[in-house]
Design brief:
Helices cover 73% and strands 0% of the residues.
């Protein structure tokens, strides 16, 4: 029985990771800057809340490796191994921290209460840690790309902070509009 459950979680994780990666190919830059709306964060957040921390971290890590191989290396977004490691497997793996809220969100849903606040709070945790890693990498590795005369840390904060805000707005809008759907996707049927 336990092996069957693990196989189901592994299969769900593979499907969600593939969906997140497929969504990465949808154009997602906002305006003329490098601020990005990452659509794959939504299925990953649902999966982490559905299956917990360990499964969320693993799916995020695999998504990061996949995105690095399929997009990062081909677009020149990997400058060196350390930067690639920080911005792909580590940063994407951090999305799995949303899984820390799995029990609390499921308990809230089971009690018939509104889970919106908890979903957003734990999503903010995972998203903020992801963009913290991008911010650090931006200040260190992407400094040469900052506009002339601009502090590279400020530039990294604007780009990565803007991406964090854009993704939280996307999450907020989707959770409000599709709240009942989110609840059904998060709850595991026995």
């Amino acid at each position: 029985m336990a092996q069957n459950k693990e196989l189901i979680i592994l299969t769900e994780g593979a499907i969600v990771t593939a969906a997140a990666q497929a969504l990465a190919f949808v154009p997602h830059s906002v305006g003329i800057s490098s601020i990005e709306v990452v659509y794959g964060l939504i299925p990953m957040a649902i999966f982490a809340l559905r299956r917990g921390l360990k499964a969320g971290l693993m799916a995020g890590l695999v998504w990061g490796l996949l995105d690095m191989l399929l997009r990062g290396l081909s677009t020149g977004s990997v400058m060196n191994p350390l930067q690639g490691f920080i911005e792909y497997p580590i940063a994407f793996g951090a999305i799995g921290l949303i899984g820390l809220g799995s029990y609390k969100v499921k308990q809230t849903i089971s009690n018939g209460k509104n889970s919106l606040g908890w979903i957003l709070a734990f999503s903010a945790l995972g998203f903020s840690v992801k963009y913290l890693f991008h911010f650090i990498a931006g200040g260190i590795f992407w400094a040469a790309f900052a506009p002339k005369g601009m502090n590279p840390w400020i530039y990294s904060l604007v780009i990565n902070g803007g991406s964090f805000i854009a993704n939280m707005i996307m999450m907020l809008v989707l959770v409000i509009i599709l709240h009942k759907v989110f609840n059904q996707l998060i709850m595991v049927k026995k």
